[in-house]
Amino acid sequence: MTEFLQALILGLLIGGVYALLASGLTLIFGVMNVINIAHGAFLILAAFITWSLWRAIGLDPLAAIFALTPVMFAFGWLLYNATIRPIRRAPPAASVLLTFGLALFLEGIMGVIWGNTSHSVRPEYFAQSFEIGELFLPKAQVYGGLVAIVVLASLYLVLTRSWLGRAIRASAVNPQGAELVGVNAVSVAALTFAIGVASAGAGGAIASVLYPFLPGSHYQWIARLLGIIVLGGMGSLPGAVIGALCLGVAELMTVTYIGPEWATGVPYAFVFIVLLLRPQGILGTRLRQDVATA
Amino acid sequence: MTDGATTAVAEETLKGGGTPPSRAPSKTLRSPWTAVIALAILLVALFPVLSDDLYYQNMIILAMVFAVGAVGLNIITGYAGYISLGQGAFIGLGAYTVGICVSDIGGSPWVWVPVAGVLAGLVAAALGVVAMRARGHAFVILTIAFLFLVQLLATNWDELTNGTGGITLPIPTWSVDYQYWPFYYTLMGLLAVSLVLSWWIRRNKFGMGLVAIREDEDKAATVGVSTPTYKILAFVASAVFVGMAGGVYGYYISFIDPLGMFNILLSVQIILSLLLGGRDTLWGPVLGAFIIEWLNETSNQEFQGGNARLLIFGGLLVLVVMFLPRGIIPTANRWIEWWRTRGKAGLAGERLTGIDLRARAAPAREAAEPSGPPLLEVKGLEKRFGGVRAVDGASFAVPEGSITALIGPNGSGKTTVFNLIGGTMTPQAGEVWFDGQRIDGKPPWQRAHLGLGRTFQITRLFREMTVLENVVAPLQGFHPRLLGADAVSGREARRAEDLLEFVGMRKYRDVHASALSYGQQKLVELAQILMLDPKLIMLDEPAGGINPTLIERIGEMIRELNAQGKTFLIVEHNMPFVLGMCNPVLVLARGQTIASGTADEVQRDPQVLDAYLGEDFRLEEPARA
Questions:
Q1: Which residue range forms the structural domain that includes residue B283?
Q2: ipTM rounded to 2 decimals
Q3: Number of domains composing chain B
Q4: What is the pLDDT of residues A94-146, one digit of tens each?
Q5: Which residue in A82, A80, A54, A55 sits closest to A67, CA to CA?
Q6: Packing angle of the helix pair B88-104, B54-73 (nearest 10 deg)
Q7: Fewest CB within 10 angstroms: A87, A97, A133, B238, which?
Q8: Residue-range domain boundaries for chain A
């Protein structure tokens, strides 16, 4: 029972981090109909920068979020305008291939700068745990999960309470309609992409403490995040949160009861099961527009 | 008038108009490229005999492995438009099949190469079944998940794969004098076979269906293409020879491990080959594979591979998508085409004149009584989108031989009713009966096969196809043999030309659909569904967005076809157009049929006035007719 409870709590905590990362991905998909395959590479990049900051000046990885979020936001904005914007009218397949290319390129750059060896960020609380009764909760996981929830909550506030948030949601539902009421869909898309990348930055800083990483880790991350948004319903923010919590718990349960070597397989299993049973995901709904372009 | 039309036909035939138009991309390539291709094949075929340079022999062998991969990928990605980022997994799957069979069962690796192909095909079929219900993006994600899943299995399933330790294959037993020849010529044979398959698919109905799916999948289904079958077969076709090439590749490398065989860079190399060479071309993937393999070797030699390879491949992928989206061969063809046709004027728009329709029509039948037995019957149809009840218990009948109108205010659910009848959407409740059969459980293509044809509110032609190909694309049935039939047979071409003549669009038969005006697209779409020889023709706003002359023409055509026995169901906002022609008229409001009858009756119905003007429309008690 303790074992189960421990896996459940840790799963939910890690699920909070996944939720933050997946929100950016699903937001970008919802607004631009772009599957950002480079999302994993963005978060690994953020993890490496966090590592460098921690190594150089001893900056706490969770404090690094404050530095990383604006930097990644700017990076995302520039990248959108330089690469995705010119092809925004091309068939959707083009953006998948483009972001895939970006992911490979970033992986190469990270390999050149930081080398292809495993890195991890270990602040002094890394090896410590909270002990509640028989439960052992590593401090890194608890702090990481809580910070992720705070960042995610602020993202939600931006999306629900600000003009930008309304513009983003309007563009997601109906880009032409949004343009008619004065929303510049292109700049909204650029800002959305930037927000998505910024959230990957914040999530990457947290993830750097939780998992060791190397440039090639981004594949595993993107597979995980794609599994989450497929499960939750592509483009749905609440869906991404539910999917992330499910995946976090399922991974921890797999580690506890089946074997750690199979944990990476959980998101792939998610993809297969969801596509077979409910292709639109948990919270995805089919709308009129999905079927008839009329 | 009749003579004039016949003469025009004869003239067209003399000009070579009677033969099917170019359909395979290879055909357009043939003239400028034949010599180059023949020379290249000869060079590759003779290379090992002429030179004993093992460095280049190795490079060509690897290039051919990726060429087989790219030719396969072209079938699912180039023709059908579905991107697979996991195509490299079939190489690994093939290699593992051969490796495991040799080490567990024994025998020569060559024996197991065909088995590798079969296994790759079966796995692709299974994946296709999973992906069948999902569209576009989900397929990309599925292929990524598939690649990583098989890599994980190969890593963790120790008993079968020896995990990360990998499998070592026996060293070839033939004389060193023969160098890598057996690998070389086997792969060359595989490449030839996959090219033949690719060419054959593209020139027949199967390939045409795939292109239709790429252009507009829903539309393809409504004109009779059974899309899941096509997609699954295409995915299988894209995997079989890649699996076999993978088997040969594994034997050639002689060491098989999860990281090498299921490396995503194999997929990247295959995708890049296809994109660079040119999607939807026969030779593009081969050309691309040779260029990319050369780059690969160069990056390994000059920069010790690793990160340099990632930077080159990643950067190239970005650049190709942004600046060379069509790939080398199609871009080169465009330049050649531009060079040849410079200075010539295009086909100008033509004034529509009233063609005597009877001249081209089959003997006119006595128009059936509008009150005849129902050809289409809808009972209690319901469709909700989240909380919105778009269709809320609609019931009506379309008498055989009638021109029935379905009118109603904006948002009353007319187009949704069309989608439910046509099968692009499934209702939550209710029944649809057509020609004595219940069809609400059937997929759209089966409804099309039964004789139900529809147009869309906004025209949906296959934009990359010519007008003639668009008209020929509909299929009246499904049969395995049909897949292998010529894309455009002579008989079909003649029938399609007759239909184009009927709608006045014959001059445009070789023009790409994307180059047509909106009104012209409407006419072609009408000809397209007539190709199905439907019993019921459903038109969604045939008069929307076109000029009054054309509206009149379309009205004439509808009457003429009706006189030949076609039943119509028309959604339209142009009231003079509808009321002058249709009987009965059905009125839909808030997802329910609130009135039906002749134009006069409906116009006087107070409920109809309420629905349109909405002055004291009561929400509490929805009125039914």
A1: 25-294
A2: 0.90
A3: 2
A4: 899 999 999 999 999 999 999 989 999 888 877 888 888 778 888 888 888 99
A5: A54
A6: 110
A7: A133
A8: 2-216
